[in-house]
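Supplementary Note 2. Why include the ligand at all?

Several targets in our set were suspected to adopt different conformations when bound, so apo predictions alone were not considered sufficient. For every target with a known small-molecule partner we therefore ran a joint prediction. The input for FE2/S2 (inorganic) cluster is given below.
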Amino acid sequence: MAKHYGRGIAAVNYPTGMNLGGDPTQALIFCQPTGGFSVKLASTDLGQGLKTVIAQIAAEALGVPFDSVIVDTGDTDSAPHCMGTFASRATHRVGNAVIMAANEARKALMDVAADEMEAAPEDLVLENGEIYVKGAPERKTNVFNVALAAHFKYGKTISGRGIYLKQKSSLDPETGACDPDSTEAHATTVAEVEVDDETGEVKVLRLASAYEVGRQINPEMVKGQIVSGAVMGMSHALMETVFPYYPALDHHTYSFGEYIIPTALDIPEIESVVLEYPSSNGPYGVKGVGEMTANSPIPAIVNAIYDAVGVWVTDLPVTPEKVLRALEEKALEAN
Amino acid sequence: MESITVTFKLNGKTTAVAIEPLESLRTVLREHLHLHATKAGCGQGGCGSCTVLVNAEPVLSCLMLAALADGQEITTLEGIGTAQHMHPLQAAFFDRFAAQCGYCSPGMIMAAKALLDKNPHPTRAEIAEALAGNLCRCTGYVAILDAIEDVVTQMQEA
Ligand code: FES
Ligand code: FES
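The joint prediction is reproduced in token form.
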């Protein structure tokens, strides 16, 4: 009876967005008399930080400070249509729609600024909310003044409409070719585990991953997704199940008393490196990095268990009971 | 059932509230007193999102009858900091990106505060132990432990 160390590896290629019957998302941007911009979205922030990255993208595309952008989400009745926050699509789809809307709003802003400053719009520079004439930086104004003039002097709106559509792609009947997603992110995880052959318990010691996620809009949040995905993957691999004996419904888990998820005491050492190969069609080259993070840890852990004790348990979660039964079977076969 | 009145010290202020005798402290805080930082998760003592301090001890407010709070001292997240004047734990959670959906954060911060008030120099393992009754679905805990360790370091340097 002993504890056995094992190491396993697994990789994932993960699509950003889905094919559906076409996959659109819209955005509207408008400027208030304060010079602040509102981005109106039906897309939902689940906690992954969509509102933050969209504010970053809008600020960048508009040429205004991050703090002057408000992202308003959450009411599908009063916001322009979005297919939803799923399939790791939101930063890509919403980001593209927001850039399109920001470009239109920026043009409207610069037209008013040009009237105000008696200059050609193409001679104006907008940087971080400040506007000046190229080559003559002393001739300057700012977004606030232009917004006031637009509202109270010219009666003009400073606003923009944006949409991003991933066209539906049908299967070519001859070749089977299809373009189901917009881009793909990639990751590889190495898991180190310790398996107790007496209790069947598996302890994950370490999860080390490399992620290729396109351009990171917010590296801290990308890291947040990767770390939490590692723990969630471990949880899928070893703990979580509603029906432990499915298709039998026995021992149905009803509460956190039986439906076990990791606590702060269960987390392994987690390490990750991120590589950035910008996508051709994402906003500033992004790819999705949401769901994929819980993927590669699972097969990596299953492979590490095999490496440790020589049994394949491919029915998830890998509970101590399943490990012990597999070890017993292996021992019987050996005799 | 007849309603009863309980009186406790809530975030430093004496507070009297009329409640149904079987209402939980969590219900009274959220629904009678409209203090929504204390979260309603499982209602069964399984998640820790409703953690408050009762006489400086972390307590699952979903499992405590509000009637038993009579005469006690209750602290909720609202009592330790505001958006303008954050408690060091709140500031550290903010700096470390220790929240995603944020639903666990109030309970985590209250559990951490209870620990640090008693033991200002805990090890990482002791911090994890103190948070073991608080579930987080989003973050994987690493950023939360980092944030609390930051506060421990700040207190050592101060
Ligand atoms: S709501 Fe009290 S422990 Fe979950
Ligand atoms: S941040 Fe969502 S549960 Fe912890």
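DSSP finds six helices and eleven strands in chain A. The domain at 3-16+182-334 of chain A is CATH 3.30.365.10 (Aldehyde Oxidoreductase; domain 4). Comparable summaries for the other entries are listed in the accompanying table.
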